[in-house]
Amino acid sequence: SVVLGYSMLAFDRSLLRIFVPNDAMAVNIGRVRLWCLLSIYFVMATDSTLGSSIRAFGHTLSPMLNSLVTIVRTVWMNFIYPNMTFVGDPVKDIFNVYVCYMITWVLSLIGQMAIFVLVYRKYKNGKGKEI
Question: How far apart are CA 54 and CA 38, in angstroms?
């Protein structure tokens, strides 16, 4: 995800012009999305890998509960975003939408890392579930 994501960022304008060749505003908004999401996409990939690893140790509930952190996005979009002050620039305003993805991915990863450490310690001490 790091190699592919950053490769796409290197050619962001060219890639976006394939889809919207004559709309500079759409390209700028697309660049905001690419930079916000692809620059930290590896965080989501690592989060998914850790969640799958925890499930492999036989603990399915804790990764699912941690995934509920992403509900913060729904709260953000329904309660915080409508009350934000906008500058009238669509590019800057849409950045606020994508920030919620970045925040929830990082929060979820922190939770998955903590859960993984606890589950792995139990497993290493012989107190884990049968695999």
Answer: 25
Q: Give the count of alpha carbons within 13 A of 120, CB side only.
A: 9
Please report, to the nearest 10 degrees, the dihedral formed by the alpha carbons of residues 38, 40, 46, 51 taken in order: -90
pTM, two decimals, is 0.79
Tell me the residue type at 126. Answer: G
Distances in Å between the Cα of 119 and the Cα atoms of 74, 105, 107, 109, 127 are 29, 21, 19, 15, 9
**pLDDT tens-place string over residues 59-80:** 999 998 888 877 777 777 777 7
Q: What are the CA-CA distances from residue 104 to residues 54, 58, 62, 109, 126 (Å)?
A: 19, 25, 17, 8, 33
Scan for tokens 């995800």, then name that residue: 1
